[in-house]
Amino acid sequence: MRSVVAALAIFASTHAAAIEAGMPAPSLSMAPLEGGTPVTLAQLKGSVVYVDFWASWCVPCRLSMPALEDLYKRNKSRGFAVVGVNKDASVADARRFLAKVPVSFALVQDGADAAARGFDVKAMPSGYLVDRKGIVRQVHRGFTAQTGAALEKEIDSLLKEPS
Amino acid sequence: MKFLALLALAAFATACAPVAPYQRAFLARDDMALDGNPGYMRAIEKTYSAKEAASGGAAVGGGGCGCN
Amino acid sequence: MAATKGESSALAQLAQAALALPILALPVKAGAAEVGEIGFTLLGYKERGLMKITEPVLWGRAQFLESWEVQASAAIDIISGASPRLVTNASGKPVQTLTGASVEDRRNTSDVKLTKHFGDFSLAGSMAYSDEQDYNSKAFGIEGRLDVNQRNTTLIAGFGSSKDHVGSTDDPTLDKPRDTKEYLVGVTQVLSPTALVSSTIAWARGEGYYNDPYKLTFTFFPTGGPLLVPDVRPDHRNTVAWLTRFRNHVPSLKGTLQADYRYYSDDWGIRAHTLEVIDERWSIRPALRYYTQGAADFYSPTVTRPPATVHSSDQRLSAFGGLSPSLRVILRVDDRLTVEGTLGYVQNAANFHLGGSGNEAFETLRAGYGLIGVTYAF
């Protein structure tokens, strides 16, 4: 009986907040990967933000992380930011990956799965492109060469929009 | 035998709560794999099966051997 | 991402390999996500007083074009030494004896498997080839996998077909075929973020030549002369093998428990159980394997007068049990290179049989093996 209730509860929770294009990004406070004051998406309003859920055990992330680093470096002066939400079991695993694939954008941890549940992440990696007003405009599940190309165009068009 | 069948059923039954795609960190470990390193598997497989009557269960399409 | 490590073992392993790919300059070239690994393994196996085998294995696997995977291996078995050929009760009790000079043989094996991913579904085709002086085998297989239930459950179905030819170094005119068809279904289920279970059942239907051309039985009777009878087995064999594998990781102990159990049954009357338990802490894996089997209906270390139409005294068809402890050490040298070593001991004996009463004519087998392996990820 308890397992049925638990299953229903999980079903309800996982289906309550599915974030898709057109919905506002959830307001979340996330701790940086290497410690420090928490980061909130509200602080980044006015910028175009790509919230990317990644992990060292996620194979397409070997493609997505360098691609995002490249997009970040080329567009940050125009008001583009990336928040990489790490889903590794330990920070040490994340560090091992970052030693091979260094990135300069913000990295946060999500040990209690609050951010992953808030966005109702359905695949790894998952990326949510948020416009200057805080509305999710694109959701990318998985990452291929096509994703990178499409993302570049989407970021470009969102950066042209006013805050 | 019956115990194992029940264990299998219980295992499947308790898995009503799916593990989310972002909770796969431990499942992706090497030691959680069903099959090991292909070289190790290939080298070890005949060590036991050449001396026993039982074989198979894991995969299809592997050739036999004239193990004498 | 596949449901479990089993089917994405190539992918997950690659996640830990060094990234030598250039930083992507958009638009991305095809092939930027090509990753793989190659490895070499060397096995040395030695039985007390009997056979010695050296086996080098070369293997590789790679992902390419975003949804394809290929895996291939090639191995050579270099076999020397003796194998029991004659069971005789000249001394009063049936015993295994060696006759003739020791043998030298070389077995070449190779296989390749190609997989295409279509989202939650994947299809694989494989071919395998084995060739030695007195035997060759060609096999192919296809396998489909489907991830369902948010990729917590994977359904597997497969079919395989193998065509063998049996010969004999004692009789160059012997060339007999044997065909086997195998069917497999299975389920892999994620139980929790740290545990999963997989259960597969494989049925095989074989027809053809199953006799062992080298095995003989020499039986003396209280009255009359002795009989020398060759190995004659049924011309078909139907088998079922049910394999269940359990994996559980305990983060607080930094260890993983692996337990595999296989139930085997065939229409020769053999029932067998295999249980292997492996404990991994850090990079050291002690393992213990227990095996027990019942005898085939037509097995006997002696023949009757007149002899039965189907008969074998090959002790691999008798009732016995086996215990094998092993220790495996895996060292990650750097991001790309992994080195491993394994030491194992095997003892098969009549008194290891579950329930005690193994066949008295079973000669205890004692063997040791050592294995070293190198894997390079790119």
Describe the structure concisely:
By secondary structure, chain A is an alpha/beta fold. Chain A has 5 helices and 7 strands. In chain A, strand 3, helix 2 (61-75) and strand 4 form a beta-alpha-beta unit.
Kindly describe this structure.
The complex is a heterotrimer of chains A (163), B (68) and C (378). Chain A is built from five helices and seven strands. Chain A has 163 residues and is of the alpha/beta class. Chain A has one domain: Glutaredoxin (3-Layer(aba) Sandwich), CATH 3.40.30.10. In chain A, helix 2 (61-75) links the parallel strand 3 and strand 4 (80-86). The longest helix of chain A is centred in the N-terminal third of the chain and has 15 residues, at 2-16. Chain A is globular and about 50 Å long. The model of chain A has no long low-confidence stretch (mean pLDDT 88). Chain B has a domain at 19-51. Chain B is elongated and about 50 Å long. Chain B has helices at 2-14, 38-49. Chain B is an all-alpha fold and 68 residues long. Chain C has a 16-stranded antiparallel beta barrel with strand order 1-2-3-6-7-8-9-10-11-14-15-16-17-18-19-20. Chain C has a four-stranded mixed β-sheet with strand order 5-4-12-13, with no helix packed on it. Chain C has a single domain (9-20, 32-377), classed as Porin (Beta Barrel), CATH 2.40.160. The two termini of chain C are 20 Å apart. Chain C is mainly β and 378 residues long. Chain C has one helix spanning 9-15, and strands at residues 35-47, 51-64, 68-81, 86-88, 95-97, 103-118, 121-132, 135-148, 153-166, 176-192, 195-208, 216-219, 227-230, 236-250, 255-266, 271-281, 284-293, 320-332, 337-349, 365-377. Chain C is built from one helix and 20 strands. The chains are: A alpha/beta (163), B mainly alpha (68), C mainly beta (378).
